[in-house]
């Protein structure tokens, strides 16, 4: 005998559109969570008191979401092209707007962020990321899609100085240390400055972690830290330590 088992599901998207939720179902082994965006307070969002009219028949957009079930999950948004009459009695059309999801990729922002974090932060290859999503979340993703997501996010990142300023604004830095890494398969060094919270503040690709390259990196880039941060965000003792390190590098090169 078949029985019905109810399970709770919560995400940023369900929180955002909780007033438009109309029900859920299972289609071809996929859990469908449906929202009708025509029930939103569109007059308040558009700043009008005119009645909202719908120009055409409604249609739906399906978006993949990370599933905690044993089957894949999708959001189904019921939308339509709408308009209202302004003070001049002219039609003002407004396209349906979906938040928290990508209509171009038909993926939630959670999926895109997770895929990019696995690649950039964890160093997982694109092929393995696609395999993880296919096996664990039952979501078909191609390597080229993940590459496009990474490129798109990277194109909108702030400048390094602005990212550094935001980091120091969150938690001030009182200690820093310099490490030299040699990425596998390369013959160059990547110099990394971290603070006591293990946050990466600066990176620099150099021929060596010693000598002139190290000195230029410390001298030029530390000025960026001091210029970017407020005086209360950086302990001035770091500057004194920097001068000592540069002096040691000068001594080693002389010897």
Low-confidence stretches: 226-255
* Tally of individual helices: 8
Measured distance between first and last alpha carbons: 85 Å
Average pLDDT rating: 77
Q: Please tally the β strands and state the result.
A: 12
- Structural Rg: 26 Å
User: Which structural category do the helix and sheet elements fall into?
Assistant: alpha+beta
Number of domains: 2
Strand content: 15-25%
Strand order of the largest sheet: 1-2-5-4
Q: What order do the SSEs take from the amino end to the carboxyl end, as H and E?
A: HEEHEEEEEEEHHHHEEEHH
Helical coverage, percent range: 25-40%
- Shape descriptor reads elongated
Describe the biggest sheet? 4 strands, mixed
Structural account:
The protein has 255 residues and is an alpha+beta fold. The protein folds into two domains: 12-152, no CATH class; 161-254, no CATH class. The chain has helices at 12-16, 42-46, 109-120, 126-136, 143-155, 160-170, 212-228, 237-254; strands at 21-27, 30-36, 53-54, 59-65, 73-79, 82-85, 91-94, 101-102, 107-108, 176-181, 189-195, 200-206. The strands form four sheets. The protein has a four-stranded mixed sheet, with no helix packed on it. β6 (82-85) and β7 form a beta hairpin. α4 (126-136) crosses α5. Residues 226-255 have low confidence and may be disordered.
